């Protein structure tokens, strides 16, 4: 396996049980691309956490950084991040304790955004030059999935309209990509007036997953899951007859403090790794061709 996927030896990789990871990957390889689906988070999983020493924006922050938002609103959104982000990543709090705070954060942020009367036609321009960056290796990632018709389901607690613009800007909004996120709704003048549907925050993705996934991907019983928050671990809950699940977690921030929790829950943990090298290597191995002798 190490010969086939040398990327698993990268210094950024940690695994609780290497043997188990190898078994899961072998099983997935045996069934090939036609049995596979990829379920991924977006912010800080498909996008970079940092680039050249600077933090990269989340979809909410992209909006924040544009001239579509007033200075007053920016100050308020920054205050929200300063207050709630430490709660989101606090390893001493349980998910149950965090949820009410997350709901409050998202509702307050969305209220602020709606007050700004954002026009749909301005979004594409706003995203250009916003500093949003998909992780290194994204072209290969999207290309392999597209070529093999592997569905990519993106579950994001970010802003769907912005997320779409980011992947359109990178040229990878392919037909096999489905997005479940917080989308804005627009009035007859194209001005954002509310957010549609149930709110998705970082710790309730499971509910959306249960409702949404099966209709696109029935009979794909092997899942490669990518996330960066412990709230992303449940994203495969909606998959029927799940056979093999491999969960890869990006540990971007507060590495020492959170290592134990990540290594005990994700199968593969990628520490401060700004690339898609490991997911790409695994995808290449799985899709390289059914019948390839595994582990050689
Ligand atoms: P996700 O990556 O789990 O989909 O969650 C989206 C991220 O967005 C989460 O880490 C918190 C972040 N966020 C902001 O940066 N600004 C905001 O205003 C809100 C509500 C969330
Ligand atoms: Mg994320």
From TrEMBL:
Kindly state one GO CC term assigned in the UniProt record: cytoplasm
Name used for this protein in its record: 5'-nucleotidase
Query: Which GO biological process annotations does it have?
Result: nucleotide metabolic process
Q: Which family does it belong to?
A: Belongs to the pyrimidine 5'-nucleotidase family.
What SUPFAM superfamilies does this protein's entry cite?
HAD-like
One Gene Ontology MF term: 5'-nucleotidase activity
| Assembly notes | Monomer.
């Amino acid at each position: 396996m190490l010969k086939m996927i040398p990327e698993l030896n990268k210094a950024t990789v940690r695994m609780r049980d290497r043997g188990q990871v190898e078994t899961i990957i072998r099983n997935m390889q045996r069934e090939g691309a036609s049995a596979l689906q990829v379920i991924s988070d977006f912010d800080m999983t498909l996008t970079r956490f940092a680039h050249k020493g600077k933090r990269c924006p989340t979809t909410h922050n992209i909006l924040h950084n544009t001239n579509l938002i007033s200075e007053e609103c920016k100050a308020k959104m920054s205050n929200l991040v300063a207050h709630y982000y430490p709660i989101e990543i606090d390893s001493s709090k349980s998910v149950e304790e965090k949820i009410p705070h997350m709901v409050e954060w998202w509702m307050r942020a969305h209220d602020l955004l709606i007050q700004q009367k954002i026009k749909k036609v301005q979004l594409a321009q706003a995203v250009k030059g916003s500093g949003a960056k998909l992780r290194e290796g994204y072209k290969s990632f999207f290309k392999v999935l597209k070529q093999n018709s592997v569905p990519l389901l993106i579950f994001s607690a970010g802003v769907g309209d912005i997320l779409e613009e980011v992947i359109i800007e990178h040229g990878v909004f392919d037909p096999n990509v489905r997005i479940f996120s917080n989308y804005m709704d627009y009035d007859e003048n194209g001005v954002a007036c509310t957010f549609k549907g149930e709110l998705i925050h970082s710790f309730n993705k499971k509910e959306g997953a249960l409702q949404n996934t099966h209709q696109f991907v029935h009979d794909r019983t092997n899942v490669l899951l990518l996330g960066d928050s412990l709230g992303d671990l449940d994203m495969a809950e909606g998959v029927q007859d799940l056979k093999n699940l491999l969960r890869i977690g990006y540990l971007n921030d507060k590495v020492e403090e959170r290592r134990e929790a990540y290594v005990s829950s994700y199968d593969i943990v990628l520490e401060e790794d700004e690339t898609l090298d490991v997911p790409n290597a695994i995808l290449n191995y799985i899709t390289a061709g059914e019948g390839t002798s595994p582990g050689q």
